[in-house]
Amino acid sequence: MKIYYNILLAVSLFLFVACASMGTPDGGPYDEEPPVLVEAKPAIGATNVKTGKITLDFDENIKLVNAFEKVIVSPPQKEMPEIKSSAKRVTVELIDSLIPNVTYSIDFGDAIADNNEGNPYEDFAYYFSTGDVVDTLAVSGTVLNAEDLEPIKGIVVGLHSSLEDSVLTTLPFERVSRTDSKGHFVIKGIAPGKYRVYALADANSNNIFDQKSEQLAFMDTYVSPFATPAIRPDTVWRDSLTIDTIKYVPYTRFQPDDIVLRAFKEEFYSQYLVKSPRDSHNKLTLYFAAPNEEAPVIEGINFDNDAYILENSVNNDTLTLWFKDSLVYRADTLLLKTTYNIADSLGNMVAKTDTVYASAKRRWAKVMELQNEKLEKARKDFLKQAKRRDDYDENNPPEYIPPVEELKVRFTGSSSMDVNKTVSFMFDEPLISLDTMGIHLSKKVDTLWVPIEHLFRPDRDIKKFNLYAEWRPDETYLVEVDSAVFKGIYGGVSNAFRQEMKFRPLEEYAVLYLDIPGTGNNAYVQLLNKSGSVVQTERTNENRCAFYFISPGVYYLRLFIDENGNGKWDTGEYEKGQQPEKVHYYNRSLELRALFEYSQDDWDINSPLDKQKPLEITKQKPDKERKKMNRNATRKF
Fold first, then answer.
1. For residues 341 and 569, what is the distance between their CA atoms, to the nearest angstrom?
2. φ, ψ dihedrals at 331, nearest 5°
3. Residues 165, 576: Cα–Cα separation, whole Å
4. All residues at 6 or more sequence positions from 632 whose CB lies less than 8 Å from its CB, including other chains
5. DSSP conformation letters of 317-382
6. What is the pLDDT of residues 495-549, one digit of tens each?
């Protein structure tokens, strides 16, 4: 009985203690240390190595994170190396035969991490030599998209000791790296000497520029790697917010470490006719795969060339034939030839002719049948309504006259207009006639509408016309259009309409004046909104330009140097040694307020290119760094 009582007492005490200490028992501090390399075979920095199989042993179980993306082997390998992890070991097997007297480097980045907490072994690089010397020099920098200075992630960056201009098209890289999410690269294991540096979006993984569709970058000069002793600060944190101490640590600085490569795609298009739909009998559209410098030539086979009106896009990559001759568009199939320029195997432009068989979706007989059914239904509805009137005479019923088809007009004027915006009329089809005498423009003076002078001019788009006048801020205008002023090529007639337009007062705008040394008269400056889209564009004159009528908000600035004076940004061409035209960003945002005039004269276009584009409008954001969590700083033990 006494034994039973003692057992019961012990159980009760255990339950009491357990209830008094709720939660998970403390298992000690978190593991926040990365794995430690215990042994490497062959040893790091070994010379005269004859085997391509490497083993790396660590002090704890590890895992590989995105090894295919992060691990870089140099010299580049034709056959993909086998990289595996198991328990505490990483094995690498180079399938290619080893090259004599060469330093091999395997840059893991932060691909190796401990298996439990994921603490990365950062910036780990393994290297050995097949000769007597290990080469240790390195170069580093950034690759940016030449057109918008976006960092390019994952592009290959390589070196050539051959300084020939054509080496990128004939020989594979000797040493390589790949950019991270910031566009940054480091090429390691370099021997002293002169090198050319390239970047290549290598579509077929042969480390040669052999496809015009591949993005590339090149330097106009060569680099000579070197190393110097240096000192850098090393911050010791007490916790996530408090600095404990700052130490200054000696290290070896490998240079150049500020290379900037501007990557681009050459203007090479595989030109061809993509499709030629004929969605309706009177409209045929030709879609081309790329822009045409000159508009393709159209030659009708079963119709004359004066039977249509041609509408072409700005880049001549879309042509629309509006058939105005009913004898032509009634045909169920139209035949034509189109001749345009393509590049041959040597890059020379030659003419190519395609024959187009354009069949309508519906046969003309079916179209007329549907139209007649619609017309007959409208006639019956008209008579049904007429019979309900008191004056209806069954012996003399009223005649049904089909209404004239309305030509719809889209007018851009509104009750809140910007002074620098164009006032336009837009139509769904080309016009066959218009009567400008039926377009009236008045300005409100006190309570009266006073007629003012104006111009009505066609736009480049054949279905668009613009209304020009001396628009003034904080003034109200009235646009009145008589009926039947506009007539489409298919008989549609416009209705009368009137629209008041109120232009915003100057008090609602900001003005921005820019003085940008080094731009002269050949730079185009673009005002960008928060999404990076162009709001306004101005050309510099003696290093200066101005933006007027800016709505309040946050803006950014970009410019390009128009070196050939054609009014647009131009890409580069490797064979000619031609770099893309330079693009620059103002390195911070501008918050512009109404009623204010701003002057900016601190835009240094010669500042480091990779530091110019503000992060807010950079689409390629840096990856989140995998660092120690420092959870022990706030944990109580």
1. 23
2. -65, 135
3. 9
4. 29, 30, 32
5. SEEEEEE--HHHHTSSEEEEEEEEEEE-TTS-EEEEEEEEEEE-SS-HHHHHHHHHHHHHHHHHHH
6. 999 999 999 999 999 999 999 999 999 999 999 999 999 999 999 999 999 999 9
Given a contact cutoff of 8 angstroms between Cβ atoms, the answer to whether 57 and 38 are in contact is yes
Peptide bond into 622 cis (omega under 30): no
Q: Are 87 and 115 in contact (CB under 8 A)?
A: no
pLDDT average per 10 residues of sequence, the chain (637 residues): 46 44 50 86 94 94 87 90 92 94 91 87 90 94 97 94 91 92 93 96 86 91 94 77 80 94 88 92 93 92 93 94 91 94 79 92 83 85 82 80 88 92 95 96 95 95 96 96 95 94 95 96 96 96 96 97 94 94 97 94 95 95 63 48
Burial class (CB in 10 A: 0-12, 13-18, 19+), 135: buried
Q: What domains, with CATH codes, occur in the chain? A: 37-263 (2.60.40.1220), 273-361 (2.60.40), 409-504 (2.60.40.3710), 508-606 (2.60.40.10)
| Residue 388, Ramachandran bin (φ over 0: left; ψ between -120 and 50: alpha; else beta) | alpha
3-state secondary structure of 488: strand
Prediction pTM value: 0.82
Task: Tell me the pLDDT tens digit for each residue of 46-88.
Answer: 999 999 999 999 999 999 988 888 888 999 998 889 999 999 9
**Residues belonging to the chain:** 637
Question: Sign of the CA dihedral 38, 44, 47, 51?
Answer: positive
Tell me the β-bridge partners of 500. 478
Residue 611 backbone phi and psi in degrees, to 5 = -110, 5
Contacts of 578 (CB under 8 A, 6+ apart): 572
Cis peptide before 580 (omega within 30 of 0): no
Please tell me the predicted confidence (pLDDT) of residue 376: 84
- What are the φ and ψ backbone dihedral angles of 139, each rounded to 5 degrees? -130, 155
| Strands 196-200, 544-550: pairing kind | unpaired
Cis bond upstream, residue 402 (ω within 30): no
Type of residue numbered 531: S
Q: Do 260 and 608 meet the contact criterion of CB atoms below 8 Å apart?
A: yes
Token couple for 229 = 């002793």
Residue 310: name the closest of 299, 301, 319 by CA: 319
268 closest CA partner among 167, 198, 347: 347
